[in-house]
Structures are given as structure tokens and as C-alpha cells.
Design brief:
single chain; alpha/beta; Glutathione S-transferase Yfyf (Class Pi), Chain A, domain 2; 2 domains; four-stranded parallel sheet
Length: 291
């Protein structure tokens, strides 16, 4: 199995742990990732709030580059995935805007988008039934009942008819099923798809503090020991703004937890970017001794 890999900007900066753990997990599962050659920023959040043309043209350029490499494209970032998926959907419609964009791309890149590939999210790939069975078979240790709140945020399920890979976008369950297969205990809670404030962390900090505070408190009320997410923007807001809430908990990327179960995490560098250190919880459960 092989995918074209679009890491996006966040995974080369604040979410390096997501990139490192994603690459390590996919390699351990025998799934080949080939990075999109000469990829560019998808435009989140600046382009789609300021320039309608760039909001579509930037992700479209990445789709054209990925299509040249001949495999479905997988994106770990929920914002990147959302923009790539929405643009792919628009281009497949064949409408006037899609035709205009393809003409522009022909002029700039000498190529157009044909829609011969699919856009996948990392969580979509890893929660495929066959892949989940492979993860469970290759796991070297159980996550031993860690109580986890699976947090999707806005962009993995909205708009539901375009981007969601869940049967019920209002009540997504695939990440819960995956962590449960690894031995963890997913909690039922109220804020699974609530907004964290996304890219407003600097311009509207007070709003983000309020939103993330509600999410963390809801996870605490449900009995969770940690949050698990598949979005670098959600991770950053939840991990960096908890100093302003009454109680804190670590935030994991889904691929980091899979890496723990597969015995890949003992000496990895992906923990270095965490503000709320997750290692005490893992050490307390003796989950970093296997490698």
C-alpha cells in the first residue's frame, strides 16, 4: 500500500511530533509514504479568509502535484485535509469555477487536475478495518485502560457531505474504536466535535481560552486522563492554553498513541514539542519500556 504524503506547514513546525509519529507508524505497518514533491501551504487560515482564488488555487496546486505521483494523497492536518477535500469536490463538479481554475493551472503549471486520486486523512487510513486489525496484530503492548477523550474538532466532519469519513459526523466513533482495539478506554463525552477556536489563538486569544477550557473541563467530567486528536491546530490550542484552566491533562496525537502500542515511542523525539508533558502518565503505566 502506498500513499502520496502531504504533511503541510504545521507538521514541519509546532506539530513535528505528529509528522514523526505518522511516518514511524506507517513505516511499521508497511504503508509507504512518498511526500508530495514541491508542495506548498494549503492556505489555511490566511488564504480562505482573504482571497477566494488563492483559497482554491493553493490546495489545487498540491492536488495536481500529488496526482502526477499517481497515488491517493494522505494529509495528517485536519485543515489541510479539509481544504484539499473541498477543492477536490469542487473540481469534480465540473462547474464554471472549476473550469476557470483548471485553465489558470494549465497556464501556470502546464497541467490540470483530472480527479484520478482520492484525498484521505491519516485517521481515515488508520481506522480502516483491515489496517486496524494489522495495528492490533503488530501491537507489542496494550494501552492498559487509559481513559481517553477522542477529540475531532470541526474540520474532520464538516461539511459532512464533502469531507467526513464517519458514518455519523455528529457522533464520530472511529478513533474510539481504534484506541479501544489498543486497550484504551474511550470515554463518552459532550465536546467531541466542538470548535477549539482553530487559527484565532493570536487574534482572539480570550475566545480560544474559553473554548479550550470548556473542552478540557468536559473531558475531565467524563473521566478522561488524556485527550487524543488528529489535528495540529486542535492539539496546539488544547496543549498551550490549559495553563489558564483549573485542571490540565496531556494531549496526544492519534499516531503517537499507536506508536506507543507498537513499541516505537521509548526514545522518540516526538514528545519534545508537548507543553503538557505526557510522559509521566505513560511512565506511570509502564508504557515506555517496550521498544
Amino acid at each position: 500500500m502506498k500513499y502520496t504524503y502531504y504533511p503541510g506547514c504545521s507538521l514541519h513546525s509546532m506539530a513535528q511530533g505528529y509528522d514523526l509519529s505518522t511516518v514511524a507508524v506507517f513505516q511499521a505497518l508497511g504503508i509507504e509514504l512518498e511526500e508530495v514533491r514541491d508542495w506548498n501551504c494549503c492556505g489555511a487560515s490566511s488564504a480562505h479568509t482573504t482571497n477566494d482564488f488563492l483559497a482554491s488555487a493553493l490546495p489545487l496546486r498540491n492536488l495536481i502535484l500529488a496526482e502526477k505521483q499517481g497515488h491517493d494523497v494522505v494529509a495528517p492536518c485536519a485543515a489541510c485535509y479539509n481544504l484539499l477535500k473541498v477543492t477536490d469536490h469542487m473540481m469534480r463538479s465540473g462547474g464554471e469555477e472549476a473550469q476557470h481554475l483548471n485553465r489558470e493551472m494549465q497556464e501556470v503549471m502546464g497541467a490540470t487536475y483530472q480527479g484520478t486520486i482520492q484525498v484521505r486523512h491519516v485517521a481515515e487510513v488508520l481506522t480502516n478495518e483491515t489496517v486496524m486489525k494489522d495495528i492490533a496484530a503488530k501491537a507489542k503492548q496494550s494501552l492498559r485502560g487509559i481513559k481517553l477523550a477522542s477529540y475531532y474538532g470541526c474540520l474532520l466532519t464538516r461539511p459532512p457531505k464533502v469531507v467526513s469519513f464517519e458514518a455519523n459526523p455528529e457522533q464520530p466513533v472511529l478513533m474510539d474504536r481504534l484506541v479501544q482495539k489498543l486497550g484504551a478506554q474511550p470515554v463518552a463525552w459532550t465536546h467531541k466535535t466542538e470548535c477549539c477556536g482553530a487559527g484565532l489563538a493570536v487574534s482572539k486569544t480570550e475566545l480560544v481560552v474559553n473554548l479550550t477550557g470548556r473542552i478540557v473541563e468536559a473531558a475531565h467530567r467524563a473521566g478522561a486522563e488524556a485527550l487524543v486528536t488528529a489535528c495540529p491546530l486542535c492539539y496546539t490550542n488544547l496543549d498551550t492554553r490549559q495553563g489558564e484552566v483549573s485542571r490540565t491533562m496531556p494531549v496526544f496525537f492519534i499516531t503517537e498513541l499507536i506508536g506507543v502500542a507498537l513499541g516505537l515511542a521509548a526514545s522518540q523525539q516526538w514528545w519534545k514539542k508537548h507543553i503538557i508533558d505526557p510522559l509521566p502518565l505513560l511512565r506511570n503505566l509502564d508504557l515506555l519500556s517496550v521498544s
